[in-house]
Amino acid sequence: MNSFTIAILVKNKFGVLNRVTSMFRRRQFNIASLNVSETETDEYSRITVISAGDERTKDQLIDQLYKLPDVVSIKELDELTSISREVLLIKVENNPETRRDVLDAAVAFGAETVDYSKASIIFQLTSKRKKIDEFVELMRDYNIIEICRTGVGTLERGGDTLRQAINL
Amino acid sequence: MKNMKLSGSDILVRTLIDQGVDVVFGYPGGQVINIYDSLYKYQDELTHVLTAHEQGAAHAADGYARATGRVGVVIATSGPGATNLVTGIATAFLDSIPMVAITGNVPNSSIGTDAFQETDITGVTLPITKHNYFVGSIDELEETVREAFVLASSDRPGPVLVDIPKDVQTAMYEYEPKQPYQKDPKNAAKDIRIQEAAKTINEAKKPFIYVGGGVIAGEAEKEVLKLAEKVDGVIGCSMMGLSAIPTSHPRFLGMQGMHGHYASSVAMHNADLIIALGNRFNDRSTGNLSKFAIGTKIVHIDIDGAELSKNVPDTNGLRGDVALTLQKLIPLLEQKKNPEWQAQVQKYRDEEAQRTDTRPGMTPRNVIRTVNRHLSPTTPVATDVGQHQMWAAQSLEFRNPRTFISSGGLGTMGFGMGAAMGAAYGTGLRTVLITGDGSFGMNLNELATAATYNVPVVIVLMNNGVLGMVRQWQTLFFDKHYSNTTTNRKTDFVKLADAFGVKGERVDSIDGLDQALTRAFEADGPYFIECDIDKDEFVLPMLPPGGSMDDIITDAKAGD
């Protein structure tokens, strides 16, 4: 199954996220990553979803999204034409036996130490989803206490915007 | 009229009147009492029909919309009033029927506290409405109601719910009368898509035109007939497409699918091209998808792009209004002659004719045929759901669109009584309801409504004392384990109708039915006729669930 990223501009109204995710649930589209954020205007919010499926599934998903009156524009964003980032916060056990390896790995990935205590270390990593997956995988060799990921946010390169696609 | 300050409930009712609404169906309650006060105030301009149950009101609004094409309106109170609408809303949603449902709710200050009769009805109806609104503030009310009408009737129609908390109904706000809402403009499919489709169609030698409910919603009946002439094709339809094409039209083969006409289903199966218009290839139409239309090209036109290639991959998918798209497509088509295909289809027709049930007596088919003799070209005929519905779909003779009022997608038993009354209100015509004892038992309380308002509904009850459709499946696929389908009820339906104030009689012969129908069509108000049907009558032909045309059952015997 191919993974694809869709950015959705929605009206900034009460309950809109529920309407969007309810459609995903009802029609059994999967959600691998979900990010909801404020935008450059109060009028709209931005939802970024990573889902998986064949072309027909993707087309169907986009068509079903367009039927929601609160959805104002949709774009599929890919690696070539857009920038995507996710933020990871990961809390790992601070064990004297593994501390050195854990810190080395963090440096190698460019993760920042944002909290350091006797019991644990929290790293922050802002990166592409794949790199975050790899870092988490690596940390599994040590004792992961807790993980929080923001979900992927994406912006198009250059001057194009989601708002330009309104009323397609 | 100058701007004036009105209460929220007055604004709601005035806005309904401004939208051209002439009748609403509903049931009062604590959180809509202000709306009912406004309905009282404006009763000369807007008729309210009080049903026996909110579900009946929802089906009535639906039947009104199906028979007229206008938006049907239903009003219910919060909590149980609102949840009683749910089946009616889901019925309208599955069949793309324009409806606006208005519910009251507890005041904003109590929302979320589980107050008395509080239900999150926008949450409940989220997956079964085209859209819904919680009107949190009086300044949004008028625009929201207007928007609800636009949304319900535009593009692919559907039900829209507007939930109005009590404090918004009592708040005062400026009201500005406006012109009635206009539907969003319709568009044809893109030219390039139309050109590509024309190429596919011009190559076809065995075209089958598959008419869905979208042809009726999009008023594309004339264009369909023109298309059929141009491609020298034959026409079949889904249940929702029934009445779009006159039954007697020489190119029309009838409904296809699970209980469709043999010739129609077989022709669709053997066509080299299916031109699908305003339908969604539902499983009741296609049977097993992996065996459906293999090697057949499909040109699919639908106003809802999400239907294209949803169930069946198409050769050409055209998103657009059916009528406008066909108007652009037809001039690009070559005038065809397909004598071989027509001869092949004639063979299917002959085979079907040989299998036609010609038994005398109170057979289901003879009951429907007798009803046919009494119908005017525009008489709306509503049904409930089950065997009687399929017999009606197979054997009723339609002459005009919007004359078949039946729950297709959701298959809602109990739909008929409300829907028939809604159709009668919408058209001003005497309406026929064909129902079965199972379905009728679900919403027969609406006999009270028919009697009170003297609604001209002719009710033909086909009583076989069993839940016949499920029984048929039990006979064929469950070793005759008649689990809970033999009702054994002691109900005397004629006495029951009488108790509700509806004149009725029981008939035991086709002649008797014929005479009873004459009395019914001359009656002032509702009339009830009960016909006994044998419990082992089958709906045939039948494509078994999950089966294909190769598995079609055309002859079956039953019995305990």
Structural class of chain B, please?
alpha/beta
- The CATH homologous superfamily of the largest domain in chain B is called Thiamin diphosphate (ThDP)-binding fold, Pyr/PP domains
How many helices of chain B in DSSP terms?
A: 23
Quantity of strands of chain A, as a count = 9
Q: Count the helices of chain A. How many? A: 4
The overall average pLDDT of chain B, rounded, is 96
Under CATH, the homologous superfamily of the largest domain in chain A reads ACT domain
- The general outline of chain A is elongated
What class do helices, strands and sheet pairing of chain A give? alpha+beta
Q: What is the radius of gyration of chain B computed over CA atoms, rounded to a whole number of angstroms?
A: 24 Å
Alpha carbon gap, first and last residue of chain A: 28 Å
Give the quaternary arrangement of the chains.
heterodimer
The count of strands of chain B amounts to 20
Helix fraction of chain B? 25-40%
Short structural summary:
The complex is a heterodimer of chains A (168) and B (560). Chain A has helices spanning 16-26, 55-66, 99-109, 129-139, and strands spanning 3-11, 33-38, 44-52, 71-77, 82-93, 112-116, 120-127, 144-149, 153-156. Chain A is of the alpha+beta class.
Keywords:
heterodimer; A: 168 residues; alpha+beta; Alpha-Beta Plaits; 2 domains; four-stranded antiparallel β-sheet; 27% helix; 39% strand; B: alpha/beta; Rossmann fold; 3 domains; six-stranded parallel β-sheet
Describe the structure.
The complex is a heterodimer of chains A (168) and B (560). By secondary structure, chain A is an alpha+beta fold. Chain A folds into 2 domains: 3-80 and 158-165, Alpha-Beta Plaits (2-Layer Sandwich); 83-153, Alpha-Beta Plaits, CATH 3.30.70.1150. Helix content of chain A is 27%, strand content 39%. In chain A, strands 5, 6, 7, 8 and 9 form a 5-stranded antiparallel β-sheet that branches. In chain A, strands 2-3-1-4 form a 4-stranded antiparallel β-sheet, covered by helices on one side. Chain B is an alpha/beta fold. Chain B folds into 3 domains: 4-175, 3-Layer(aba) Sandwich (Rossmann fold), CATH 3.40.50; 191-354, TPP-binding domain (Rossmann fold, 3-Layer(aba) Sandwich), CATH 3.40.50; 364-539, Thiamin diphosphate (ThDP)-binding fold, Pyr/PP domains (Rossmann fold, 3-Layer(aba) Sandwich), CATH 3.40.50.970. In chain B, strands 3-2-4-5-7-6 form a 6-stranded parallel β-sheet, with helices on both faces. In chain B, helix 12 runs antiparallel to helix 15 and helix 16 packs across helix 17. The radius of gyration of chain B is 24 Å and the shape is globular.
